[in-house]
Amino acid sequence: MVFSDDRQWAEHLGAFVRRGLEKGEQVLYFADTTAPERVLRALTDAGIDAEGAVTRGQLSVSAAAQTYLAGSGFDPDEMIGLWFDAVRAASASGYRGLRAIGEMSWGARDIPGADRLLEYELRMHEEVSARLPLTAWCFYDRRLMRDEYVGVLASAHLTHRGEPHPGPALRVAPLVGRPGLQMSGSAGYDTRDAVAAAAAAVSGAADPRTELDLAALRHIDAASLALLADAAAGRSGGPPLKVRQAPSPVRRLLQLFPELDSVVEVVDR
Questions:
Q1: Regarding the domain delimited by 1-167, which CATH topology (the fold level of the hierarchy) does it fall under?
Q2: CA–CA distances in Å: residue 93 to residues 48, 96, 110
Q3: In DSSP terms, which residues pair with 30 in a beta bridge?
Q4: φ and ψ at 101, to 5 degrees?
Q5: pTM of the full structure
Q6: What is the enclosing helix (H) or strand (E) of 142?
Q7: What is the 3-state secondary structure (H, E, C) of the chain?
Q8: Domains of the chain, residue spans
Q9: 215-258 residue pLDDT tens
Q10: Rounded Cα gap, residues 140 and 162, in angstroms
Q11: What's the CA gap between 209 and 179, in Å, rounded?
């Protein structure tokens, strides 16, 4: 969810929370720059009995700094585990599912682990959303984050709402219908962080069938190739990493380093 003013924030917030309460789900809001009291006030102004929902335990508004950022920093592996714990807790309390909103503006600050935010977003679909009764929205406030960074992070989601966001030079997104990532655009010096995040998501993927679809990749430099090759080589056992529609630089790399044949398989369909 991308927005740039308080009115948009309040509208999206109210619609999301109201729907969850009506469906009998538990609703969590993880605030970053917004005071929890302001969140509750905005819900009340929207005609939602926020205080009643808090009292009965169906709604919780807390600060990210006191929850998943409370330790030494942001850890995607730990956060993914926390989602499973939260869904189990909601189910044990009799709720039909869990829905959550997270303000993501902390990702633009110098917080330990913030550089792994894109990796986390890329892993969320396959490792969490596809497996749990969870509806989660990431709130991106364009007043607090660079447009380019918002574009990179928002593009890592299968669904988008709110304001249009600028298309990044390199788009990395989850595949639909099978585990893996699609990379489109240009992978080079200016997009090295996004390539590194994609490589981390590939090397740490829980599903050994993870694939890379590079059909829409216009350019890739040697350093980016090396990152992806290291990711394939670092996967623990299982079948080789399937690379679909590999561009010519990838094919040349595999010819130069035949030892990669055991960890990378090029598929042309």
A1: Rossmann fold (3.40.50)
A2: 21, 9, 37
A3: 62, 102
A4: -120, 135
A5: 0.90
A6: none
A7: CEECCHHHHHHHHHHHHHHHHHCCCEEEEEECCCCHHHHHHHHHHCCCCHHHHHHCCCEEEEEHHHCCCCCCCCCHHHHHHHHHHHHHHHHHCCCCCEEEEEECHHHHCCCCCHHHHHHHHHHHHHHHHCCCCEEEEEEEECCCCCHHHHHHHHCCCCCCCECCCCCCCEEEEECCCCCEEEEEEEECHHHHHHHHHHHHHHHCCCCCCCEEECCCEEEECHHHHHHHHHHHHCCCCCCCEEEECCCHHHHHHHHHCHHHHHCEEEECC
A8: 1-167, 169-269
A9: 899 888 888 888 888 888 877 767 788 888 888 878 887 788 78
A10: 10
A11: 7
Place of tokens 């788009």: 171
Single-letter code of the amino acid located at 236:
S
Alpha carbons within 13 angstroms on the beta-carbon side of residue 130 total: 17
- Buried b vs exposed e over 34-52: b needs ≥16 C-beta within 10 Å? bebeebbebbeeeebebee
pLDDT for position 237: 67
Distance CA 19, CA 212 (A): 35
**Rounded Cα distance, 219 and 56, in Å:** 54
**What is the CATH class of 169-269?**
alpha beta
